[in-house]
Records
---
Amino acid sequence: MKNGKILMMALAMIVLFACGNASDRGFKQTDSGLKYKFHEQGGGEKVQLYEILKMDMVYRLKDSTLFDTRLNDIPMFLELTEPEYPGDIYEALAMLSVGDSVTFIVDAADFFMITVGMFELPPPIREGDQLYFDIRLLDALDEDGFMVEQQRIMEEQMQANERRADDEDGLRDAFLREENITVEPLESGLYFIESARGEGPKVTPGSTVSVHYEGRLLDGTVFDSSYERGEPLDFIVGMGQVIPGWDEGIARMHVGGKAMLVIPSHLGYGDRGAGALIPPFSTLVFEVEVVDMQ
């Protein structure tokens, strides 16, 4: 396998979404400068070059988590190759045995510029920052073992998605009852609940609107919020720049108006889901406010 760098690139571009704390206290250091702290040790033989490592992985920058495999219950797979420079993540992984739980600290600039191969540091990372990798090594596989494991995970994901598809209507109906929402869905299946009719002009297809919003799952988990960023989203209505439920719902509003959109998955992200926080077949709930139109 030669996909290590590709996987690292995918990890590096994940949007920040959680918080944690990091400290150098209690860490040991190798001759190369790599800092590490074992929390548990499996006691087996160390991993070998070109084995494919199956692991839970979190990596953090100061108080922000950039990636966490546990959120989707899908482990990380990465082929162990030769280190590219002293103290890199591959040197760190070569220290492990199956069952180990450990935290490594690597230089953030070296990781992004050398291991990932980026041309410049992505915000908010700066020279001198450190990355904290929290890793639990679950298994070390050869090619055949990796293919078997991938097939097993794929089958489990398909079964999980089938259950989500079967459960979506019931979960949405329960949410509507709990929220005392009695409006009938539109022909598309979208629930449009207007809480304040805007005094400005009606939104028209082809216009550019600025929309503040908060998006959450039916269980209340917030997955995105323009309010937290302090900046509304601009998009052209009816051009497919947003999910279909947004195009349809926002087009029913006036500037200054507020509404709740309850969006079934077929008008949202469907059987794919989105990112780490939106599973497949998820009904989405958005509180939206049209703040401007051009």
---
Amino acid sequence: MGVADAITKEYMRGSKVFSDAFNYFIYGGEQVVDPEFLHELDTTEIAIPFTLDGKSTREETVQKYRDVLKSMVVMRDARASYILLGIENQTDIHYAMPVRNIIYDALQYGKQVSEIAKRHKDQKDRKGHNRGEYLSGFYKEDRISPVITLVVHFGAEEWDGPLSLYEMMELEDPTLKEFVQDYRIYLIDPYRLTEEDLEKFSSNLKGVLGYIKYSKDKKELSRFLNNSQMQNMDNDAARVIRDITKTPIYVPEGKGEINVCEAVKDMINESRLEGRAEGKAEGRVEGKAEGKIQMLKELVKDGTLSVVSAAAKVNMTAEQFKKELDKEV
């Protein structure tokens, strides 16, 4: 795992940021997913393929690692829904993301079925259940929890990868297409976020995504910094901005807060001062060089020096020095 991937993963693990992403995407900014009721789960997705005939004795495990996975009970309109929420962070565009996500979700569903089957086996509660239930390990009354996976793109360029399985296929036949299952990915892409969209975020994810969105346009970035409320931002968020956009701001190690706006403005001012100093130094050097050339031109004119000798004193060819002489004609 690269440094940027590790930093974005740690950042999105924060419950406030995690819930903010889902509240924006699913509920349009309404505060439905409560960070206090999120429970982090093991991100290792292991599924033991279960057999329907009960004859296989060899267990083959399939294992993948999600970025972040949390469980919670969503209360809405007096109805409770137990749900699993997963986030995949992408610093680069993944052109097979629909397949990648469907594997994660399928493994999670398989894991739930395997755990239910194991529980029945441990409890030895076969009585009252038919052969089909016994062989599958999954009884008619059993239920699995729904999984929603959200992709967060931490990149300034537009996500131009496929958003569904259909987009990865060349399948034009409408009859066949009706029988081929599609799978869509749910994506937060800074490039596509509008100012109105950014206002729907309630955590510092707004500042992080907005900064990434405008990071390649200095004028727009300056406007965003002046209009946004990116004052005190926790260090995890500031590290994401620093490492994803390559902004050379200083972020202290460990937990804490930093005023990103001031840090960026200080960096810009420092760069301007350095640029002015470099410009003055270059101007002085150029001025001295011009003065020396002018003096040598006068010596050539009055016959004190030859063109070849004068040119050699300023690292020029005789032809180049003649062009300098011609400028005054």
